[in-house]
Specification:
Blueprint (H helix, E strand, L loop, with lengths): L3 H7 L7 H5 L2 H9 L4 H10 L1 H11 L10 E6 L2 E6 L2 E2 L1 H12 L4 E7 L4 E5 H17 L7 E5 L5 H11 L3 E4 L6 H11 L3 E5 L2 E3 L2 E3 L1 H9 L7 E5 L13 E3 H5 L11 E2 L3 E7 L7 E6 L1 H14 L7 E4 L6 H13 L3 E6 L9 H9 L3 E4 L1 H10 L2 H4 L8 E5 L5 H11 L6 E4 L32 E4 L13 E5 L9 E2 L3 H8 L7 E9 L5 E6 L3 E4 L2 E4 H9 L4 E11 L3 E10 L7 H14 L8 E4 L13 H9 L13 H13 L1
Parallel strand pairs: 4-17, 6-7, 6-8, 7-14, 8-11, 11-12, 16-17, 16-18, 18-19, 19-20, 29-30
Antiparallel strand pairs: 1-2, 3-13, 4-5, 9-10, 14-15, 15-23, 21-22, 22-24, 24-25, 26-27, 28-29
Length: about 650
């Protein structure tokens, strides 16, 4: 981009098009309340968040079985929203829609092989009910866990909705995770049923998902039944009495199924996410607060209207897909696109072709994807008419200004504002995000969504707001989509989020707030990698490495990477009797892929004789990382073996 450098230096503020602002949902909402601008709205909403969020519940049309008695009960560190209400998110996402928008398309689905399915709200309703009845027949009851390990096919949201409908708790495991990763999660959640598929296509080849699922549940004793969707017609082994074809089990089931009336704060799903230590943690979200939070943010940030065609490219197996492909768009009665396949297959214009074909108006993706397409060149974009687009979105990691400008210029044709949404698995929905009315600064997620109290703290818990100094990103009061806990792990819940600053939520990110109140996210503070917008614990990769017979110790750190954000770099100490070799490196990379999934496969592996450790024997990852980023090392007097750092440096230089 020839003018890029000039643009970067300019620090221009980008104002959204007037027409978009005037017609936006948020502008109409403010007009109705006589609020003059978004800063006043933020102020009013923070003065009385309970008022604001109950307004939001009305705005998105929440229908309660029994009205809440209280908007919020805050008993730190546990928050309950819409206390006393009887509710089920599936009522708003589905039952209500089947009544209001029976013939409207809910999902336009396209497979990598070119197959297309359009599913109306009416059809979705029947499908979900039939599967819900089948689950009941298999003995699934309220509160039971249903594990879901599926590719991006319509049966994936159907499975989630069917579980939630009967009051079960779903736990999705991303289909790119390995059998071992699935096994860990299924065991932790003690899932009774697993829903999966025979296989799917990825970049033209077949992924044998059912085989992976079988391997996983060999040692997952809680699983009584497996439901298998026939996606591509593979001949897979089916265990008698345990495994059922989806088609067979839903055949003949009634098209109606009563929606379980849940307590507003009953668990809806568990979603595992990486943390600093140990195993992934099971983040739990509840029905009501989550429903209001996700749908209000989608309505007012992405400005969803009745005739929009909305496409979020995330995988449903991650939080972005849960919130913004499944629950929020359905609650708003929107039409969404779901694509099951590689973004650049068969050619790098697959996404742009689809935007043109379906007339996508709102497009939400991740910086890593944008950077990939940037490298492939804008000629692939220019082959297609993208004039249907009116709003763009970004999520998963800070979007670097180069990628921002490219996205703005070539995809949005300088017409479409970019909603850079900061949030987390734990927050459930956007926390810091522009509104369609917000002047944008490329690289900043701008300001908190109204009604959410975000700040940046120094070590002592003093606010660094508008000081432009980096500190801890925190949320000072509960927000509707707040996690309700970590599955079977209340101690870790408190320790991770609530211990550093009393009764204040610690996000784990560093950020600064500039003079205009704009937030700039600087990345994770803890030992968690962000690879292509996905969270991977350094310790998870390390423990996968040391589970290999050749490895005695490992340190895993991130290296800034042009496309992925961070690349995984591993330093490995071998056991006696093993010698460094290229084959062993490849073997270790494959081993990690098998243990966790391809996404965690180290990009670089270095063999070292020793790793820098404290006197108490703790590996000093921070120092290893500093060698990579060439940051100043600082004090090393606590090191037991300072020479190990030199060896790390030598390894980096020698092997390149
Ligand atoms: O570091 C932040 C980064 O992703 C983390 C949350 O990861 P996860 O729970 O997997 O959810 C990702 C999708 C919501 C955050 O702690 N992150 C997410 N969005 C942004 C971001 N960093 C900067 N800007 C964003 N827009």
């Amino acid at each position: 981009m020839p003018d890029l450098e000039a643009l970067l230096k300019e620090e221009r503020v980008f104002h959204p098009p007037k027409e978009l602002v005037e017609n936006s949902n948020i502008k109409r909402f403010m007009d109705r309340l006589g609020i003059k601008d978004e800063d006043e709205l933020r102020k009013r909403a923070l003065e009385d968040p309970e008022w604001f969020w109950s307004e939001m519940a009305k705005e998105v049309g929440i229908e309660w079985f029994e009205e809440p008695k209280k908007v919020l009960e805050w008993d730190p560190p546990y928050a309950k929203w819409f206390v006393g209400a009887k509710y089920n998110i599936v009522h708003d996402a589905l039952d209500k829609q089947a009544r209001l928008r029976k013939n409207k398309v809910a999902y336009i689905w396209e497979g990598e092989d070119g197959s297309v399915r359009k599913i109306t709200y009416g059809e979705l309703y029947w499908e979900v009910n039939r599967l819900a009845n089948a689950l009941k027949e298999l003995g699934v009851k309220k509160g039971d866990r249903v594990a879901i390990y599926m590719p991006m096919i319509p049966e994936l949201p159907i499975a989630m909705l069917a579980s939630a409908k009967i009051g079960a708790i779903h736990t999705d495991v991303f289909s790119g995770f390995s059998p071992m990763a699935l096994q860990d999660r299924v065991n932790d959640a003690e899932a009774k049923v697993l829903i999966t598929a025979d296989g799917f296509y990825r970049r033209g080849s077949i992924i044998h998902l059912k085989e992976d699922a079988d391997e996983a549940i060999e040692a997952a004793k809680s699983v009584e039944s497996v439901i298998v969707v026939r996606r591509i017609g593979l001949d897979v082994p089916m265990q008698d009495g345990r495994d059922h074809w989806y088609d067979d089990i839903v055949r003949g089931q009634p098209r109606e199924c009563k929606t379980e009336q849940m307590d507003a704060n009953d668990a809806l799903f568990i979603l595992y996410t990486s943390g600093t230590t140990g195993r992934p943690k099971g983040v739990i979200h509840a029905h009501a607060g989550y429903a209001v939070g996700v749908s209000a943010t989608l309505k007012f940030v992405f400005d969803i209207k009745e005739d929009d065609v909305y496409w979020c490219t995330a995988d449903i197996g991650w939080i972005t897909g849960h919130s913004y492909i499944v629950y929020a768009p359905l609650i708003l009665g929107a039409t969404s696109v779901i694509y099951c396949g590689a973004p650049d297959y068969p050619k790098p214009d697959r996404w742009w072709e689809m935007i043109e074909k379906y007339g996508v108006t709102v497009f939400y993706t991740a910086p890593t994807a944008i950077r990939t397409f940037m490298r492939l060149g804008e000629e692939w974009v220019e082959r297609h008419d993208l004039s249907s687009l009116r709003l763009l979105g970004s999520v998963g990691e800070p979007i670097n200004p180069e990628a921002w400008f490219w996205y703005y210029k070539y995809i949005g044709k300088e017409r479409c504002p970019i909603m850079d949404t900061w949030w987390q698995t734990e927050t459930g929905h956007f926390i810091i995000t522009p509104l369609p009315t917000t002047p944008l600064k490329p690289g900043s997620a701008t300001k908190p969504f109204p009604g959410i109290d975000v700040d940046v703290f120094d070590e002592e818990g003093n606010s660094l707001s508008k000081k432009n100094i980096g500190g801890y990103l925190v949320i000072k009061r509960p927000w509707p989509g707040i996690l309700i806990g970590l599955w079977k792990n209340p101690d870790r819940y408190i320790k991770t989020y609530w211990e550093k600053f009393r009764d204040v939520y610690l996000a784990g990110d560093a950020a600064r707030v500039d003079e205009d109140g704009y937030f700039w996210i600087q990345g994770r503070l803890d030992d968690v990698l962000n690879v292509s917008g996905h969270r991977i614990g350094n310790s998870e990769v390390e423990s996968a490495l040391v589970s290999h017979p050749a490895v005695s110790e490992a340190a895993v750190v991130g290296r800034p990477h042009e496309v992925k954000g961070e690349a995984i770099v591993a330093f490995v100490v071998l056991r006696k009797g093993y010698r460094p070799s290229e084959e062993l490196k490849e073997g270790l990379r494959e081993h990690v892929a098998r243990e966790i999934g391809k996404i965690a496969r180290p990009d670089e592996i270095y063999f070292v004789p020793d790793l820098p450790k404290t006197r108490s024997g703790k590996i000093m990852r921070r120092l290893v990382r500093a060698k990579i980023t060439k940051d100043r090392i600082g004090d090393t007097s606590t090191l037991m073996n300072p020479e190990a750092l030199v060896l790390v440096e030598k390894a980096l230089e020698g092997e390149g």
